[in-house]
Amino acid sequence: MILMVPVLLELLEKMKNNAHPFYPQLLMVDGNGLLHPRGCIMVLNYEIYSVGFGLACHLGVLTNIPTIGIGKTLHHVDGLTQSGVRELLEAKPTEAFIALTGYSGQTLGAVNFVQAMRSTKCSVKPIFVSIGHRVSLDTAITVIKLTCKYRVPEPVRQADIRSRQYLQKNQWH
User: Fold this and answer.
1) Helix (H/G/I), strand (E/B), else coil: 14
2) Which of 35, 83, 106, 166 could make an S-S bridge to 130, C-beta 3.0–4.6 Å?
3) What are the tens digits of pLDDT across the range 94-123?
4) Which helix (H) or strand (E) holds 65?
5) What is the band of 140 on the pLDDT scale with cuts at 50, 70, 90?
6) Phi (first) and psi of residue 102, to 5 degrees
7) Which region, left, alpha or beta, applies to residue 108 given φ > 0 means left and ψ of -120 to 50 means alpha?
8) 23, 11 in Cβ contact below 8 A?
9) Residue 114: which H helix or E strand, with range?
10) Cβ-based neighbours of 42, under 8 Å, separated by 6 or more
11) What is the DSSP letter of 148?
């Protein structure tokens, strides 16, 4: 994860220096934000919290661009587990997004498991949305809802598709 940050920073810097017309106002990262086991200590209102600090947080803080983390797998953090999330999903099967609150009481992200955002009718793979930087969880969820045509938000999905095509085309040459 940390290895990707310099490459992404360089790309964003090139875009900024060239006054690229599509310089991002928001980043959607194929990775986690607060919903990440590697953490840091945060002091808020004189209280100390241990929070996750995934790629979305790292990139957002360094660029000061609002950032959302889109995870495809759940990291076990602050007591959250696959089985616990499955229980939440079974208890609230009609809710679009379900908040993921750890043992600490801190809401670390949300999970999406609604039929409308599944890639196929038999898909059972949720996406995990977490705050990266300068975005509330409610705003992150709204953005995800607006950009989901399939299971994964379209900007992240297109980046996955195009990067795989590039690697296939250029890997063996």
Assistant:
1) helix
2) 35
3) 788 899 998 888 888 999 865 333 444 445
4) none
5) very high
6) -80, 180
7) alpha
8) no
9) none
10) 48, 49, 50, 51
11) B
